[in-house]
Specification:
It is a single chain. By secondary structure, this protein is of the alpha/beta class. It is 36% helix and 28% strand. The protein starts with a strand and ends with a strand. Bound molecules: nicotinamide-adenine-dinucleotide. Residues 7-8, 10-13, 35-38, 41, 57, 72-75, 77, 95-96, 122, 124, 164, 176 line the site of nicotinamide-adenine-dinucleotide.
Length: 357
């Protein structure tokens, strides 16, 4: 059985805990321990998931006998625990963005290769069944050569303002949101970024004391010649219909694809609560009468569960190489995405087109 620990059990780390605990009830993995530097949070999560807790990941990795480590610390703090755990021969699952420097990503890849361990990056948009269909169509050539496209991903302002104002200034709409869409478009087309031009604004959040970009628009030329514009922001009003607004379109010689990845067709309005749209294919919760617990499903969960399934596969003699260009986001994908994001930030500073390298 696959034995796992989680480092960073905050907002998104909770989804990791829900996923691993659920798979544990199926007898396919064991959540051995968790780690967070926030002692109160750690104590609560330990109680909720009935698991051992540590405030120091090094101590946890010294003491526990495990196969894999999942890292959900804030964006700039993935590198250190990943490198440490990989050097101990543990398989890695790391939240996006893999790291906010290309050198950091390269170090993570090198250490994982040296230790022959999996380096998996959580690019969950690959697990969305709508996106899988689009990718299959593009790879079949139905739309011909993609010429241009557009993608947007926008959060409500509550995310940087209230959820993590402490580390939002160390992140940006590109790091927090753009990386999802950069990966999705490059995964669909099978092509990496070549150059990027970007403009951004620092107005609203700065006025609220959170010094980060409100919005960034980046035009990326990919190696296949397609030019895709990404509009990324985290300042949508509190009463917007969902936490995240997202979607994309791609136009090729022979076709057009338009995908609303936010509004999946269910719209509700309740007294005093405005209008909401649901994206239940991301993470949905339903009561499971068999276990008496909540059952989590959706592409946000599958993307995390995929780590367990990969470790099972590897433990049976599966090859790391065979995972490439599949649904799993790997370190090799994470670094390509970080290269686009780093170049986009360079373009914001220089005002020029920047090469992605
Ligand atoms: N896949 C997705 O859709 C998705 C969505 C949201 C966030 N994320 C990513 O998940 C990561 C975490 O985001 P979040 O929203 O959960 O942030 P958060 O601030 O809620 O949680 C991060 C946790 O990490 C802990 N931490 C920081 N340094 C640590 C260390 N050295 N050792 C142990 N714990 C440490 C913090 O105390 C905190 O509890 C980020 O990289 C973010 O971009 C992914």
């Amino acid at each position: 059985m696959v034995k796992i620990v989680v480092i960073g059990v905050g907002k998104f780390g909770t989804n990791l805990l829900n996923t691993f605990s659920q798979i544990e009830t199926e007898g396919r993995c064991k959540l051995v321990a968790i780690c967070d530097i926030n002692e109160t949070l750690l104590e609560n999560q330990c109680k909720k998931y009935n698991v051992k807790g540590y405030t120091n990941y090094k101590e946890m990795l010294e003491k526990e006998d495990i196969d894999g480590v999942a890292v959900a610390t804030p964006d700039p703090f993935h590198r250190e625990p990943v490198v440490y755990a990989a050097n101990k021969g543990k398989h890695i699952f790391v939240e996006k963005p893999m790291d906010i420097t290309v050198e950091g990503c390269q170090e993570m890849i090198d250490i994982c290769r040296k230790n022959n361990v999996l380096l998996q990056v959580d690019f969950h948009k690959r697990f969305d069944p709508f996106h899988i269909k689009v990718r299959n169509d593009i790879r079949e050539g139905f739309a011909g050569k993609v010429e241009y496209g557009y993608a947007h991903m926008e959060d409500k302002i509550v995310v940087p303002r209230d959820w993590f104002p402490g580390w939002a200034p160390k992140s940006s709409p590109v790091w927090f949101l753009g990386v999802h869409m950069f990966d999705l478009i490059r995964w669909i087309m099978g092509s990496n970024g070549k150059n990027v031009y970007a403009k951004g604004k620092k107005l609203k959040l700065k006025s609220l004391g959170v010094d980060t970009y409100d919005s960034i628009s980046a035009m990326v030329e990919f190696e296949n010649g397609a030019v895709v514009t990404f509009d990324l922001s985290w300042i949508l009003p509190d009463d917007f219909e969902s936490i995240v607004n997202q979607g994309f379109r791609l136009v090729g010689e022979k076709g057009i694809i338009e995908c609303d990845s936010q509004d999946r067709g269910t719209r509700v309005s309740y007294e005093g609560m405005g209008v909401s749209t649901y994206n239940p294919v991301f993470i949905s919760e339903s009561p499971d009468k068999r276990t008496g617990k909540i059952r989590y499903s959706g592409y946000g969960i599958e993307s995390i569960a995929d780590f367990v399934y990969n470790l099972e596969y590897l433990s049976k003699g599966g090859s790391l190489d065979l995972l490439k260009d599949g649904i799993t986001g790997l370190g090799e994908d994470g670094i390509e995405v970080t290269k686009i994001a780093v170049a986009a930030h360079r373009a914001l500073e220089s005002g020029k087109v920047e090469f992605i390298n």
